[in-house]
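hey team, just a heads up i'm posting the complex here instead of the shared drive bc the drive is being weird again. everything in one block, sequence lines first with there labels, then the predicted structure for the whole assembly after. its two chains so it's a bit long, scroll down
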Amino acid sequence: MRTLNVDLGDRSYPIHIGEGLLDDPRFFAPHIRGRQVAIVTNETIAPLYLERLQKTLADYAQIAVVLPDGEAFKQWETLQLIFDALLQARHDRKTTLIALGGGVVGDMTGFAAACYQRGVDFIQVPTTLLSQVDSSVGGKTGINHPLGKNMVGAFYQPQAVVIDAASLRTLPARELSAGLAEVIKYGLICDEPFLAWLEAHVEQLLALDSAALAEAIERSCAAKARVVGADERESGVRATLNLGHTFGHAIETHMGYGVWLHGEAVAAGTVMALQMSHLLGWLTAAERDRGMRLLRRAGLPIVPPKEMTAEHFLEHMAVDKKVLDGRLRLVLLQGLGAAVVTADFPREILEETLRTDFQALADQLGEH
Amino acid sequence: MRTLNVDLGDRSYPIHIGEGLLDDPRFFAPHIRGRQVAIVTNETIAPLYLERLQKTLADYAQIAVVLPDGEAFKQWETLQLIFDALLQARHDRKTTLIALGGGVVGDMTGFAAACYQRGVDFIQVPTTLLSQVDSSVGGKTGINHPLGKNMVGAFYQPQAVVIDAASLRTLPARELSAGLAEVIKYGLICDEPFLAWLEAHVEQLLALDSAALAEAIERSCAAKARVVGADERESGVRATLNLGHTFGHAIETHMGYGVWLHGEAVAAGTVMALQMSHLLGWLTAAERDRGMRLLRRAGLPIVPPKEMTAEHFLEHMAVDKKVLDGRLRLVLLQGLGAAVVTADFPREILEETLRTDFQALADQLGEH
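-- predicted structure starts here --
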């Protein structure tokens, strides 16, 4: 078992990473103030892990809230199910919400915790790779709006993150790959040695090798904890974590939430950011291709949806949260492992990026 | 013009109190970071003050969101109108929301600001006495849930509170009285000299005497700012501001939001707290009657709804936010000007309070 710390003053919290943590009350008890807990999960995860976690938390008065599964349900009506259950069971301000599931469950449970009675405690128990390495750490919570992803939410930190890496054994291969998109992102934005390590271990990760997974999760969480500790509310460096996300959000919004997995959209969006960085002269073609090749080896799409035109992207990106004072800010790379957030690029380069034939780029990559 | 300060470290903000402030850009400009403002108001206030405030803020790109009026609309569907408007007009993270109206507008606008893109700035411009002396100061924001009032919300501080006392001239008499319930509350919980001042000036306040109103608003805001500065998140002394509110919320919930005005419910609830304090031996009958008499002179109900039984109260109070670990905590008085928050009372005294014939108590009061 390994423990990292997210350093945020009086909102600091630990990330516990290991196998079998789900069954061990010692990782939960120190973070629960009251006598009530509410486990929030979804229809897919409940049959796999709910009973085990209920047994681990047998000492508490507990309720379980089982939400429908999927990004399409990351909305107010679903959130309301959590409030309904808490109020019906008369949970008070000392209750602790426990998010058992992937990013959607974590984001909604965290936002429910931020809002219920103006704020109660919560613990993240992420069961997907994507949520383990990204969304469960850092306190971004929220729901989608028909006009934009994550447009309604809060910065609200959990009391702890408990990552049971064994839960990845039940994760569909497609979702494992989606999680790897965010893992690869850390290498690209701030850790070139990690990128090289991933190139050497991507097959082991896809084969669920325990040691490789633990290493990848820990290095990813450590990178995220470092960035969040330096910039909790995303006024600066934290925005680099959004590499590929502005393009990716446009894909998710255009295709309808849940059609492309978040990690898949981020992968294609990352390729677009790599290409734009290349067109700006900041990355060589070989560096761009190195990123694309690793994403493809991880089982991820590296070509945006064929039905999306440049105009579609521009339209969706205009309402992105990264837009400040009407200027579009993007995360780009000035080298592998060196991300910047910038609005300082010619509009024509963005348009050239959006008109790139990514299929042709992919076709010329070769195998390794 | 008078300015008070709410002292909350890096979340500190000023309260400006005066006549005609609505027309003066100098009270707004220092608190607006970006180029966009969104004025949120309601159907009643818009015809009276919206155009004036739009003119004052003519230098900014602005939208106006006009909500339906009333506590019944303090709910998610109405909040959604604010998000819709912000997203349609592509307001970014640097936008400033401006709450122009009473407590419902202020609570919803503040909560919308807390959640929109995980938090944007807002300014309170309260136009009712109740919101000027209470809800606009202190950062409590939120909406109601069918199972309880203010059950979903956030602690989120404004950038400034701008109180134009001249707006009270358009306030219905019933709402002026409702505001006085909270003004009297400050005297009862922490400022006996203010209580005596109110006894001497209640007729002037009801007649909208400018000097008396400014004095009452300032002393109320000063009391609130002091308490909030000492305990922003209501872990202790701030809870004393809820005198009469636990009983009052039960009245509002039972009668349906908006049937009794919040201040009216608080007035009747305060009488119940006075009576319970008396039954505990903490207030003399004369002290209880002094509070009741002042509330009645202010035009407020001092008898709870006849259709509400003791059982109704107990049922509604069991889900109140003041319930911790299953124990009901109430704000009671150990003397006029000396409130305590306590769960340390015999259950029978609470039940005796709920069975009191308040009409008979009112009938024996006499005139002054």
